[in-house]
Amino acid sequence: MKRHDTKRGGRRIPSTFARLPLAAAIYLAVGSAAFAQEAAPAPAPQKNTEAATLDTITVTAQKRTENLQKVPISIQVLGNEKLEELNVTDFEDYVKYLPSVSYQTFGPGFAQIYMRGVSSGGDGNHSGPLPSVGVYLDEQPVTTIQGPLDIHIYDVARVEVLAGPQGTLYGASSQAGTMRIITNKPDPSGFEAGYSLEANSVSHGGIGHIAEGFVNIPVTDTAAIRLVGWNQHDAGYIDNREGDRQFPIRDTEADPDAVPSWGGVVSNRDCTSTDLLVCTGRAKDNYNDVDTTGARLALKVNLNDNWTISPTVMGQTATANGSFAFDENVGDLAVSHAYRERSEDKWVQAALTVEGKIGNFDVTYAFAHLKRDDEVDSDYSDYSFWYDTLYAYGGSIYNDNGDLINPSQYIKGKDGYKKTSHELRIASPQENRLRFVGGLFWQDQRHDIQQDYIIDGLATDSSVPGWPGTLWLTKQIREDHDEAVFGELSFDFTDKLTATAGFRSFRVDNTLKGFHGFRSYIEDDPDSDTDAFCANPDTPFMNSPCVNIDKGVREHDTIGKFNLTYHFDDSKMVYATWSEGYRPGGNNRRGSLPPYMSDYLTNYELGWKTTWFDNSLSFNGSVFRQEWKDFQFAILGANGLTEIKNANQARINGMEMELNWAATYNLNISGGAAFYDAKLTENFCGLTDAEGTPITDCPVGVINPDTGEEFAGPEAPSGTRLPVTPKFKGNLTARYNFNLGGFDAYVQGAVVHVGQRTSDLRLAEREILGSLPAYTTADFSAGIAKGSWAVDLFLSNAFDERAVISRFAQCAESVCGAAGVVPEYPNGQIYTVTNQPRMFGVRFSQKF
Description:
There is one protein chain. The chain is mainly β and about 850 residues long. The chain has 2 domains: about 15-35 and about 50-240 and about 285-680 and about 720-845, TonB-dependent receptor, beta-barrel domain (Maltoporin, Chain A, Beta Barrel), CATH 2.40.170; about 240-280, no CATH class. A hairpin with a 2-residue loop joins strand 37 (about 775-785) and strand 38. The protein is globular, with a radius of gyration of 28 Å.
């Protein structure tokens, strides 16, 4: 019997207590007029005959505060004003405007992020590879083992997206790039507050709302606090339609060799259950609603002219109901599921940043501790149905009376994350001809994993001991530790030519310990083929039967970077970069498999940053080649266990461009585009030799010397396109500001195009899942403002485009995606994750 671990997540519902920070923030914001001087009304915009210019954007991508146009990195920035203009509230809102970023998701909250085509697919398993893109909240990393936090975007200064390897300054999991969310900081110079109220309606769905508020309160001349709160309800738009599923009926009288079957019906209707009819009553329209509540409390204290301390506590609770994918066999935006589907994600991060000077050197210490707890309920009955249909799985599912029972499974998962990081760095004066930034980094990640696969009424002698009804249990602790010393040194050969060299020397120590398996795993002996028997079945582990995996891997290495930058003048420069990034290795659950080791990405890049026409137009871009060596790839092995191997080599050629144009004082146009050619450079056979080296020569019929079996040929030949990333992704935004009867007014339109993508690296699985077609979405908005208040109207996904974000099956694609086996599912049972349908909304906001 096979087992496939699935993971789905989303944003969750708030508790009453969790609403208090929001209420406080809005109360303080609205009541602030009683405490602050009345603000003078803003003057009406006057016609200006001078040339329009672009604003200067500052970033901290290189651990220094710098002008974006002076930083020799392919970097895109969405500032506070831009985020508000684009109606951004969460990850999926802003990622569409980032040409270098692709993603896969099972719903909001657990996206797998990829940059510059560095994707093999199959990520997100709790015992799988770490992410290849690092995500930071201010100075602190927030990328957990299964993906980053989905942080509500409000009162955020900017989002910085650094494309390409950022290994020297950002380390592990910044192999392909880094995303940084920079919040607005407390300001002792004056009181400030604001709030925003929004109502929206989703086509094919329900009504949603957002309430947000912030207040900045100076405590003294040198200290201030900033309190931010938010509450968001996203309306559902996928229906769980009424439906029945007939399990196979096998006639043992006509065929004595046939395996007996339960042969009953599972229904999500409200009806009366009998032995051969199971009714769950879970059919519901607008099934996948989401509720999110959170708050951030920050303090800033200027101890003197040189030293500042900034502690912050931020937390969020989110609940998602239902499924964020639809089943085309049921209909558009519809599924027919009988078992509970819900997830709750709670996280709190405490952070401390200390900044100061020792002599002329800038010193920064950044600490963070993240605690994240997820609970996920998943319908897993597809697995049971398809394995029963094809392999008579249900014939072994009995109750204590020996009667065959409904074999449908559902999953109750719990994931507990703890992440602690420290970084200490020092930087020499930025104006020096020879300057450096360097430091020390230390990080611990712990992931408590519990995956409980349940069949109601399952016999005691088939259940994992101590877990009634549990057919399969995963109860493990995964710990990933890394530490590093890093630095970059820059030297100005002339006032136009600068060279920068960097390195990061790191050590990795990752372990995996605990239990996984069926009841039989406890009773088998070392000679069995489970490869996971309990050596000490009388010694429990965290209320699981025993320890049948206890593995670790240690690594150490050094990566580098070299850059040459040439400034033609203050407005135009070019740069050439060689850089490396890495992703740490880890442990396979299957005892006979060796650990998978770190994989490396080497980047060769030529870029430019230019402004033209008296700073009214900027045009930035880069061309690059990336070599991906021995990349980690997760496949579904025997018993459905995920196996990770350093499987192959790939090459990504690409070009990225960004344009911003202040055409007039009224009209601003911006856009970005990315072109990628991402392919394997050797055959992918899905195999490694005894030393873990990828096997790339596997012609059909030739004997594998390691196993004595015949090769079946490559699963993906050299030249196969890497999955998930389109060959082209681009966006264009135009905004026109004008005066309307004494009000400041605007209209805006934004278009995003994502090209066709492939769903899997392996050709057979790709054929089953199908391709991910190209799509184009359009957003429109308009609004008026006067003084401190503003009203905005917006229409997102105006033409109701049904984008295909990803496709998946609940079990092995060759089983759950089997075509022509069941009339009700002519092409198997494949799910499509889509975007939100058309949404119309209105927002009122005010600042004091």
